[in-house]
Design a protein that fits this description.
Elements (H helix, E strand, L loop, with lengths): L4 E5 L11 H15 L3 E7 L2 H6 L2 E12 L2 E11 L5 E6 L1 H4 L6 E2 L2 E2 L3 H19 L3 E5 L4 H9 L1 H6 L4 E6 L7 E2 L20 E2 L2 E3 H8 L2 E4 L2 H9 L1 H4 L3 H6 L4 E3 L27 H14 L12 E8 L5 H12 L4 E8 L1 H13 L4 E5 L3 H10 L2 E4 L9 H7 L3 E5 L2 H6 L13 E3 L4 H15 L2 H13 L4 H21 L1
Parallel strand pairs: 1-2, 1-8, 2-5, 8-9, 9-13, 13-14, 15-16, 15-18, 16-17, 18-19, 19-20
Antiparallel strand pairs: 3-4, 4-5, 6-7, 10-12, 11-12
């Protein structure tokens, strides 16, 4: 029997409450599922930003969850999302009426464990109203829902026919609790054991969700293989993932082409398309003007390298810092829209002063500038230490902006090395996490950029790359149906 209804549980949803790529996924995947005729709902925290931007109605009031010695009251609100998707919000002002999502000014909220344990448990009350065929929890912030669904006796009975799936977006963040925090989950102490939640003396929400869910996925096939077989990338859970066997898989994220399409992008100076690329050069000229960077002579090919990223070691920004002087010796310009680690921010601010005609660093996030960088850049750089999926390289491909990426996770699944002889491939990759390998990839890219006919063919290959959410939604539904078939035959 085909899946008729899915409810997703997550801590972010684009475009209203966004801290990273998770919001893009939760903004787009439900709409793609709905387009395939599936009744789709999303359950999210009732953040201030959401309550200010969405018209809501109360669907359940006077609810509460006992967490330790405290009863946490909450309401469930409902709003109409985009594309026929229903949004259910867990309203708890003490936890969610804040300026940030996970923290403010670079500092995480100290009560995040309590906030998201509460959210996961409260989300099950919303799921009880929806009663979906599939309950799809995302990352550690929603892990308590996957845990409660199978470890709480009352919920286990009520949701016995509901498929529980859990998707990992970033294994580096797992929701680790002290033993003193474990009772907040409201489940028996027998679950605090090595086979379930115990993890080196603590409790691990992500581990519990992996063990208890009917199926587990992550956001690209290569990342799934990496985290299950590489001790470093598995962050201690590689064995737990291997134990899931064929119930653990990688499904590549999609790109939201309604938001990221140069032919209809309202943020860029002029739209362009694969058939009419002239305005991409205009976008580059305007970007240089906006950034007060000099325009090189027409006879001198100087590519613009764009980056839109978090300034963290995961994204390889420390490697970029190591390679920066050698990179600036190449004939290129660099623009970074980024923020994060204060020490890295200072390094690149100092570098901008050292290379005033070669680079610009824009701290923070500006959605308009993100679009303008994608449209105006010739190349898009992602030197990630690890990358579960990555979305910005997919956007770059759509904009004919050639990715230069490290061959890891979803970057390996979406970018292939361009061969100037066969004219195949859509970008440039490097595998060793070294400054020398990064510079070598940039040299290869610049060499092709200097040959307009080959670069035009490479851009064409980028434009043809297709990573739609409709494809991803189809894969998810097929996976759900396989898992449901396995449950009925056990």
């Amino acid at each position: 029997m085909k899946v008729a209804s899915v409810a997703l549980i997550a801590a972010e949803i684009g475009p209203w409450a966004k801290a990273g790529g998770l919001a893009d996924v939760i903004g787009a995947l439900p709409q793609a599922l709905a387009r395939q005729g599936v009744a789709t709902s999303v359950i999210v925290p009732g953040y201030r930003a959401l309550l200010e931007k969405l018209a809501t109605t109360v669907v359940a009031d006077g609810l509460g969850i006992v967490m330790g010695a405290v009863r946490e009251p909450f309401r469930i609100l409902r709003a109409d999302g985009t594309g026929g998707v229903a949004i259910y919000l867990i309203e708890h002002p003490g936890f969610f009426d804040r300026d940030g999502i996970y923290g403010d000014r670079g500092e995480a909220y100290p009560d995040n464990n309590r906030r998201y344990i509460f959210f996961g448990r409260a989300a099950m009350a919303a799921a009880d109203l929806i009663r979906p065929d599939v309950l799809h929890a995302h990352d550690w912030h929603a892990a308590a829902a996957a845990i409660a669904m199978r470890a709480d006796p009352g919920l286990r009975d009520r949701f016995s026919s509901t498929l529980s799936v859990f998707t990992i977006h970033n294994l580096a963040y797992q929701g680790v609790l002290t033993p003193a925090e474990f009772p907040l989950l409201g489940i028996g102490s027998s679950w605090f054991s090595v086979e379930y939640l115990e993890f080196w003396g603590d409790a691990n929400l992500m581990k519990g969700a992996i063990v208890l869910a009917d199926g587990v996925s992550t956001v690209s096939p290569t990342y799934a293989n990496e985290v299950a077989h590489d001790i470093a990338l598995g962050f201690g859970l590689d064995g737990v993932l291997r134990d899931k066997g064929d119930r653990f898989c990688g499904i590549l994220n999609g790109a939201d082409y309604a938001e990221w399409d140069p032919a209809r992008d309202r943020y860029i100076p002029k739209p362009y398309s694969p058939q009419n690329r002239a305005h991409k050069k205009l976008c580059l000229d305007v970007l240089r003007d906006d950034l007060h960077l000099p325009h090189p002579p027409k006879s001198e090919p100087v590519p613009m390298i764009g980056m839109v990223t978090r300034m963290t070691a995961q994204k390889g920004i420390d490697l970029l810092a190591e390679a920066l002087d050698d990179m600036m010796a190449l004939n290129l310009q660099l623009v970074m829209l980024s923020s994060g680690d204060p020490a890295l921010e200072r390094i690149f601010q100092d570098a901008e002063r050292s290379y005033p005609d070669r680079m610009r660093v824009i701290l923070g996030f500006d959605d308009t500038m993100a679009h303008r960088i994608q449209a105006g850049s010739n190349m898009f750089l992602m030197p990630s230490r690890f990358e579960p999926c990555g979305l910005t390289q997919m956007y770059a491909l759509k904009y004919g902006t050639v990715p230069v990426v490290r061959a890891t996770g979803g970057l390996r699944d979406t970018v292939s090395e361009f061969d100037p002889k066969t004219m195949t491939g859509n970008g440039f990759l490097f595998a060793p996490f070294t400054a020398a390998a990064l510079i070598a990839a940039l040299r290869r890219a610049i060499a092709v950029y200097a040959r307009p006919n080959k670069w035009s063919r490479l851009m064409g290959n980028c434009f043809k790359s297709e990573f739609s959410w409709d494809r991803a939604a189809t894969e998810y539904l097929e996976w759900f149906e396989r898992l449901r078939g396995d449950r009925t035959t056990v």
